[in-house]
Amino acid sequence: MSRHVQSADASVLERRLRPIYEWLDCNNNKKALQECEKVLKKTPTFQCVRALKALILFRMGRENDCKAILESLNSEQPTDDSTLQAMTMCYRELQDLQKVCKMYEIAVKKEPTNEELHTQLFMSYVKVHDFKAQQQCAMALYKQKPKNPYYCWVVMSIVLQATRGEGSKDQGKKTLLLNLAERMMKKMVDDKKIDAEQEIQLYIMVLGLLGRNEEVIALVESPLGEKMHFPNSQMVTLNACAKLERWQQVNIICKNILSESFDRWEVWKTYVQSVFELAETNINGLGENGSTVETADNTAEKCHEFICTILEGVADNSFSLRGPYLARFELGAKLQEKQLDTNEILGDISQLFVEYFRKFGHKPCCVVDLKIYLKLLDSDQKSELAGKLVKEVGIGPTSVPQSADQMQRHIGALQLSRLCGAHRNLSVEHLRALVTALFLHYQHGYQAYGKDLPATELGPSDNYAILAAHILFDLSIIENEMEYVVVAIALLGGLLKNSPSNFHAKLLVVKFYHILGVALSANFVYYTLDIKHLQLDSLGYIHCAQLATTGLFELCSIHFDSTARFFATNYKESIDHLTFSYKFGSFIKLDEFMDFREKMNNSTHYAIVVVDRIVLNLINCHDYDRLCNLDIPSKDSEIEWDKLSDNRDLDVYLTWDPEFASESVSKSKAIQRLYTQNLNFLKLRTRLLQTVSAALKVVQARDGERQKRMEHLKQTLKDWRKLEDEVKKTDLDPIPENLIPYPPASRLHGYLDTPYRPVIAAVLDFQLSLAIDDLPQAEISCKSAQQQIEVLAQQLESVLTDSVDYRKRRKGLEMFVNNLELICISCVLCILCTALVKPPHSKRAKKKQPVASRSKDLLLSLVVNSVKKEIDKVGKLLQEWSEKVTEKDLAGLLGLLNLNTGNTETSEQHQIIMESYEISYKHIKNVFAAKLKLLDDL
User: Fold this and answer.
1) What is the mean pLDDT of residues 93-113?
2) Range scoring the smallest mean pLDDT among 254-268, 367-381, 468-482, 629-643
3) How many whole angstroms from its chain centre is CA 241?
4) d(CA 175, CA 166)
5) DSSP assignment of 837-894, as one string?
6) In angstroms, what CA-CA distances link 480 with 255, 484, 833?
7) Torsion angle, alpha carbons of 555, 559, 565, 568, to 10
8) Is the torsion defined by CA of 282, 283, 284, 285 positive or negative?
9) How many CA atoms lie within 13 A of 506 on its CB side?
10) R_g of the chain computed on alpha carbons
């Protein structure tokens, strides 16, 4: 910094910088740049302002200017904190954090005694996961300023080298590093320097990684253990004893905890497990003294006795705790797992369900608690339990609940009845009658108990309507009539008018709309869910993943961009969690944050969205220059397939289907098969893009490199074919569509039904023959390309039928979109062929073309005309198909359900659905029209 700036008063500097920061905070880059220029006129060498100017220029899209300023600043080797922080922000947005490390390394060399610079250098290493450099920097910092946190930074850096760095794949090196970390922590203990719980936790972490659980127990029981919060120390001891399989101690610790905290569910589960472990080893359960608490329970009878003792204590409380009551079910589950008689110890299991329902049936959690233990009952017992619970509520066919609690009990009884499989045995007439009854109960519940509630609360009777929607979906499957789904949408639409915050209903409506292929209406409801941040990853599959098959390309672009932006922002900003963990000593959270960051960065949904976004760019590409500017992945940028993570929240839908009573949706075999299919679809889709990228490089290559690029393209095509053959040998059975929690079927099926590879490979063979000026081969490949392209409309016509109901419209729409994608990519390849025949930006004077060039022009025009003819044919097919409207007798269906009050709403829904179809068709036709214009220009 210049002498003028160095001698300036700090308050003057702050006053000059404040307006710049204020405009930056407001995202007004233009004003911020103006303020920078004002200051730089007076002090041209003001480093902090120049760094802020670089940041502003980057945000304005002037990346090269930004980098020029940063290079200039680096040559001056600044050391003041404000300048370095501003430069750090620049490099962070440039995603070049390695240069932040170099920048602080230079600053530390210039001011080796500056503690703040050392700290920032350490944090810069944290951001790039350079664990070895972290260790060295932290040790230098500790030698300069011997503080406990810096010493712990050294130890944690060594631990990370062992678990995530160079020692993670070498067991010998890993053990060596962990032993070093343990000795360092032991020295800290011997020197009596430990004075905070975080430091003890770090020592426990190191001992745990070494498997020294006995030393963990000794540490907690030593005077140092008193520095830990008591509940934390208890749980550390409990976990260490469980790892050592000291089940007697585990049992006694659990009993101690549960005698004071009755509702610790994780402790209840560990306690029950320890009982059966002791029973298997025949260990005597006597403790050191004769008290009940100090005696370990080694039989199921003693376990049940202890639970009953706790229940007697709970009964005296004015409030009810669910833990002890659920512990009986957990005991029953363990007995069943060991193939022991449950009735001998617990009595009639179904009676336990009734007792629990009597005590907690008025709470929404009751059904969730009980459903995982329904596996304790056989089919006859389940049917009996369903009848008992409905009778227990005391509401008959002609009566209504007399209180909000009784209504909640009735809802719970109906949900448990469905979980027991009661609805599976009902006839269509019974199911219709049940829908009518549930709709009437919903209306009564809303009128009696839900009218005066705030709009942000869920209505107390909403689950009646949601359950009715589930039954309507069942009817649509049984009778193969999607009109029931339209009625369900209308019913849920009425619910959302009364209870606009009910996200369960919104999720169902979005799903139902997508079942019908009505993406526009689904998008409207999806926006009301206000899904953001992590939910874009966990819940994106309910809408974003299905938009690509609907033809609404503008909506696709919006959702793809917002999702990709979230992941990019999250990857940049989540690094702060790591630095904060070091600053506050939360070492036990570091692994969790790093795992989370990797999980998000390797999200399968993110990968699919990025690939779909590139395909969408190809659809919208209309000239060679724009094509060259697209970021199309090459074979060198292969996705790390083994690291991809399925982050979908598949349990988000309320479900009372018996199939998911004992296991979650995400663990079902159908979901595992679906994920494999989605992964294969992503691989094929990526290979398609890599092929287009290789074809583009052939055109861009200089004469000396062209042959090498052509060989690369041929190899990419071979890899694509090999992959496709392998995928076709896998399990291609689509996921069942008869259960609401299941996601939609994989797009792999639609991909394989569309001749992506044969058509693209044929056009690329033609491109390769043009590239080497092989006219005989060009004529052969031209005919082959024409034949492959002309198959598209024929395949579509053979699949599309005269009868067009709601379900067939959705599937037909996906077929049209897939064919549109293929035609658009064919147009892109035609652009590349044109670039070979007529190089873009050629400055040669116009003169008579040679014969060979005219022949290539002629062959190219034949391929282009084939694509144009196919666009015309597919466009006509779309027009004819869109005009096939089947009149739906929705009024008659409502009459059967006695839901005449919803007639108007249902008719409106039908009109909304048809309008959404029309908009999708219009978007597809617009793309076809744009492609025809493009081909005319070629």
Assistant:
1) 92
2) 629-643
3) 36
4) 12
5) HS-TT--PPP-PPPHHHHHHHHHHHHHHHHHHHHHHHHHHHHHHHHT------HHHHH
6) 55, 9, 48
7) -130
8) negative
9) 20
10) 34
**Residue 27 tokens, joined:** 């995202």
Percent of the chain with pLDDT over 70: 92
**Is the pLDDT score of 230 beyond 80?**
no
In this prediction, residues 413-440 reach a mean pLDDT of 92
Q: What is the 3-state secondary structure (H, E, C) of 136-170?
A: HHHHHHHHHCCCHHHHHHHHHHHHHHHHCCCCCCC
Both tokens of 851, joined, read 């014969």
pLDDT band at 8 (very low <50, low <70, confident <90, very high): very low
Question: 645 has which bridge partners?
Answer: 603
Please name which of 176, 188, 120, 178 lies closest in space to residue 152, comparing C-alpha atoms: 188
Q: Are 289 and 272 a contacting pair, CB within 8 Å?
A: no
Backbone angles phi, psi at 603, to 5 degrees: -65, 130
- The count of other CB atoms within 10 Å of the CB of residue 903 is 15
How many Cβ atoms are within 10 Å of 731's Cβ, its own excluded?
9
- pLDDT score of 886: 58
Does pLDDT of 902 surpass 80?
Answer: no
668 dihedral zone (left: phi>0; alpha: psi -120 to 50; beta): beta
Dihedral sign from CA coordinates of 836, 837, 840, 846: positive
Contacts of 199 (CB under 8 A, 6+ apart): 148, 152, 188, 585
Q: How confident is the model at residue 846 (pLDDT cuts 50, 70, 90)?
A: very low
Amino acid at 719: D
Instruction: Kindly report, residue by residue over 158-168, the tens digit of the pLDDT.
Output: 999 999 988 78
Assess contact for 673 and 731: CB atoms under 8 A: yes
pLDDT class of 790 with cuts at 50, 70, 90: confident
How many Cβ atoms from other residues are within 10 Å of residue 396's Cβ? Answer: 9
Confidence of residue 900 (pLDDT cuts 50, 70, 90): low
In the chain, the percentage of residues whose pLDDT exceeds 90 is 57
Distant-in-sequence, close-in-space partners of 287: CB < 8 Å, separation ≥ 6: 252, 293, 294, 295, 296
Given a cut of 60, whether residue 842 has pLDDT beyond it is no
- Identify the CA nearest to 877 among candidates 795, 935, 932: 795
pLDDT digits (tens, 9 = 90+) for 916-928: 889 999 999 999 9
Average pLDDT for 672-685: 95
How buried is 31 (Cβ within 10 angstroms: 0-12 exposed, 13-18 middle, 19+ buried)?
middle
Assigned token pair, 125? 């290493």
Distance CA 638, CA 917 (A): 37
Which pLDDT does position 844 carry in this prediction? 46
Q: Provide the residue count of the chain.
A: 938
Top mean-pLDDT range of 387-396, 409-418, 835-844: 409-418
For 360-405, what is each residue's pLDDT tens digit? 999 989 999 999 999 999 989 999 998 899 888 888 777 888 899 9
User: In 480-552, which residue ranges form alpha helices assigned H by DSSP?
Assistant: 483-498, 503-516, 519-528, 535-538, 544-547
Give the pLDDT of residue 288.
45
The residue to which tokens 């298997």 are assigned = 280
Structural tokens at position 419: 């979980």
Tell me, rounded to whole angstroms, the distance of Cα 907 from its chain centroid.
Answer: 36
Nearest-5° Cα angle at 573, 82 to 528: 130
Half-sphere exposure for 325 (CA within 13 Å, toward CB): 18
Cβ neighbour number for residue 152 with a 10 Å cutoff: 25
Q: How many CB atoms lie under 10 A from the CB of residue 157?
A: 26
Distance between first and last Cα of the chain: 58
* Chain centre to alpha carbon of residue 379: 37
Whether residue 370 contacts residue 426, with contact meaning beta carbons closer than 8 Å, is answered with: no
